[in-house]
Write a structure and sequence with these properties.
Four Helix Bundle (Hemerythrin (Met), subunit A); five-stranded mixed sheet; Alpha-Beta Plaits; single chain
Length: 704
């Protein structure tokens, strides 16, 4: 029994931490909404509901410090506070979200939770502030019942009883509020079965608003009239309860058990300390109901599944290779057609399995994006700026591993946009802009890639200042700087330690943020581009593969070496004569229809070794964003589905290679990192020199 109880307690803890993240995110969202409109009663109601749930769930798991602190916050979240438009309330709510998050992290790590006294002091100060003059208006009930109380109410309604929710505001001049509320409770107990009440009895003396849930045979009007105790009750609202949950028989039984103390008085239940083993059975039923449609699987198991699917893809390539060899040897053998049909069926099933396995790891980017409104708010407040965040494309799916890895780069980009990109209100006003700056975060699918854009309407990046700093640091000579375009110049901000900030602040100025962004994008086989317009703002565009596991690629040979490039980067393939290739400013170009295309040669031999005896070469036109290059290759091999395998840096130490794969015949093929190839050769146009790469195991020379 003890082992079973421990297992159930552990399961409850895991569910608590999972649901707590959602609750804390909702707390952040509503806190920001309250900051925009301090008198937003609906936001206060939702905050109170979240805090109430967090209090109950944490108490059921034995997290007393968190439960007590949430209890104290819930006490001050009254309709009167919302009506008074307390300016300190949004700050308290956001601070509470941070404190609760820190406590959850400590509980998860089985450490001592942080001291909640600073938050208590903020709550106490707000509770002591003078109240605004009361204006008797229409009362807005909260009805923020716990899920256990909702279960009890739904069970009563399921048995055919009339269940009502009653909200009562207490007269401000009532001299003995606790006695008045006790009298009101007694009246309701005589009118039916009392299922729940808020707040609890110890807080009646200061309560200005109380709520009850009751199962009664009387109608709403009768109950409303009965509740109007002279000298005690100012307003009454009675609403018919509508169940939000469909209960199973087990849920109903648990609800009856959980509701029993409320029906006869909650003094004994309130005095009992919460613990894991004494939690109501309703919690266990909630777990069972939740588990019916949700299966929580460790990420490592999904990774193992994807690795096995990848091995099957390699096996499929081997079978295709064997079929090709069998066809060459015995083209008329009747078994050949049967082998081909069986292989086609196997490929069809494997493709479906691959898609299904990929979808398991796909999650909407909203899981990441919803963290950033709070980040923008905090950084803007620290900088003395007024900034809003507009988010779109939240439903775009991305691999969970990629999404987690993107968190840090996006934090750096958004912080920089607020600190460096957006001007102060006075500067914006002088430039004829609205005082409030705007940062836009957008995500979408383009082919087999995910595109994430972070843009602002600030003053843009000063390319001249960036170039001057680059020259001063020795990253470029004055002659090279003179030949650089604005697009090439601004990319110096990705250099390690590079910063144009005149001072180092808590937010930025150390030159490490953008370097982290670039490094992370390279590890994720993605790339980043910048578009900036002086006085109008800057846009950072991140492009990433949907997954890092399996891609379709174009295979080709250069100097008898086999390479691959992701198929989505290939714009077109052209054939050209060596005589049509010209050299301009130390780099080769080809006129392809009405545009001049810069050519790139990858070879460990001299450039002249590339090409055929007839003087004709293949040119694979590759592009990323606005950049476009032609990759000169000796021979096209064809398209192939490749399973990407990471490479040890001691074997291939080059940013130009993103990974390797194994073909059906055992041949190893290197996969080029298109974004880094384009970046390197864009820089080579200004400073023509050999660029280290990777091709024959250790290095690959590249000339442009």
């Amino acid at each position: 029994m003890s082992s079973h109880s421990d297992e159930r307690a552990s399961e409850m803890r895991d569910l608590f931490f999972q649901s707590a993240q959602e609750l804390l995110q909702a707390l952040n969202v509503q806190g920001l909404a309250l900051e925009q409109d301090a008198a937003n009663a609906e936001a206060v109601r939702e905050i109170r509901r979240v805090v109430h749930t967090l209090k109950g769930d944490s108490a059921a798991c034995g997290f007393r410090e968190l439960s007590d602190l949430a209890h104290e916050l819930e006490d001050v979240l009254s309709p009167e506070i919302a009506a008074s438009g307390a300016a300190s309330l949004p700050e308290i709510v956001l601070s509470a979200a941070d404190m609760f998050d820190a406590m959850c992290a400590a509980y998860r790590a089985r450490l001592e939770p942080p001291n909640g006294d600073p938050l208590r002091a903020m709550i106490w100060r707000m509770a002591q502030r003078p109240s605004a003059p009361k204006v008797l208006g229409k009362m807005k009930p909260n009805f923020a019942w716990t899920e256990y109380e909702q279960l009890a109410m739904a069970e009563a309604a399921g048995r055919g009883l009339h269940v009502y929710e009653i909200a009562v505001s207490i007269e401000a001049a009532c001299p003995m509020r606790a006695a008045g509320i006790a009298l009101l409770k007694k009246v309701l107990q005589e009118a039916g079965t009392l299922l729940a009440s808020v707040p609890e009895e110890p807080r009646w003396a200061d309560a200005g608003h109380v709520e009850f849930a009751i199962a009664s045979d009387h109608d709403q009007q009768w109950l409303s009239n009965k509740c109007r105790v002279p000298g005690v009750v100012a307003q009454v609202a009675v609403e018919k309860f509508v169940p939000a949950l469909e209960l199973t028989h087990e849920d109903a039984a648990a609800a009856t058990t959980a509701a029993a103390p409320s029906a006869v008085g909650s003094t004994q239940a309130a005095s009992a300390p919460p613990n894991n083993h004494g939690a109501p059975d309703a919690v266990v039923n909630r777990i069972a109901a939740y588990a019916e449609n949700t299966l929580r699987v460790d990420a490592e198991r999904i990774d193992n599944l994807l690795n096995l699917v990848g091995e099957l893809v390699i096996g499929k390539s081997m079978l295709h290779q064997l079929l090709h060899e069998f066809t060459a040897r015995s083209p008329k053998d009747p078994l050949r057609a049967k082998f081909a049909d069986a292989l086609a069926f196997q490929s069809q099933v494997l493709n479906a399995l691959q898609r299904s396995a990929m979808k398991i790891r796909m999650v909407p980017v909203d899981q990441l994006f919803r963290r950033f409104p709070r980040l923008v708010r905090d950084v803007a407040k620290l900088c003395g700026k007024d900034v809003t965040l507009e988010v779109s494309g939240q439903e775009t799916d991305l691999d969970k591993g990629l999404l987690d890895a993107l968190a840090e780069p996006l934090v750096h980009l958004i912080r920089n946009a607020v600190d460096h990109g957006i001007e102060t209100p006075s500067e914006r006003s002088a430039a004829g802009k609205p005082d409030q700056g705007t940062i836009r975060l957008h995500a979408c699918h383009q082919g087999n890639q995910v595109v994430i854009e972070i843009s602002d309407d600030g003053h843009g990046i000063d390319a001249a200042a960036v170039l001057a700093k680059a020259v001063a640091r020795g990253l470029a000579t004055p002659e090279q700087a003179a030949r650089m375009s604005e697009t090439d110049a601004v990319e110096f901000i990705f250099e390690p330690g590079f910063s144009t900030a005149e001072r180092i602040s808590e937010i930025s100025g150390r030159g490490v943020g953008m370097d982290v962004v670039k490094t992370t994008l390279q590890k994720l086989k993605g790339n980043i581009s910048i578009e900036t317009r002086p006085g109008r703002g800057t846009t950072f565009q991140l492009r990433l593969p949907l997954t890092l596991a399996i891609i379709r690629a174009m295979l080709f040979r250069v100097a008898e070496r086999l390479y691959a490039i992701p198929l989505e980067s290939v714009l077109e393939i052209a054939r050209a004569r060596e005589a049509d290739i010209h050299r301009v400013d130390s780099h080769e170009v080809l006129q392809l229809r009405n545009e001049v295309l810069t050519l790139v040669r990858l070879s460990r031999l001299a450039p002249a070794a590339t090409g055929h005896g007839d003087g004709r070469v293949f040119v694979i036109v590759i592009g990323s964003g606005e950049r476009k290059f032609g990759l000169v290759v000796d021979k096209l091999v064809g398209e192939e589905e490749l399973v990407i395998k990471p490479l040890d840096e001691t074997i291939v130490a080059s940013e130009l290679v993103s990974g390797a794969s194994i073909l059906g015949d055992g041949t190893v093929v290197l996969i080029l990192n298109v974004g880094e190839v384009l970046r390197k050769f864009a820089r080579a146009r200004i400073n023509p020199a050999a660029i280290p790469a990777a091709g024959n195991g250790r290095s690959m020379e590249a000339t442009a």
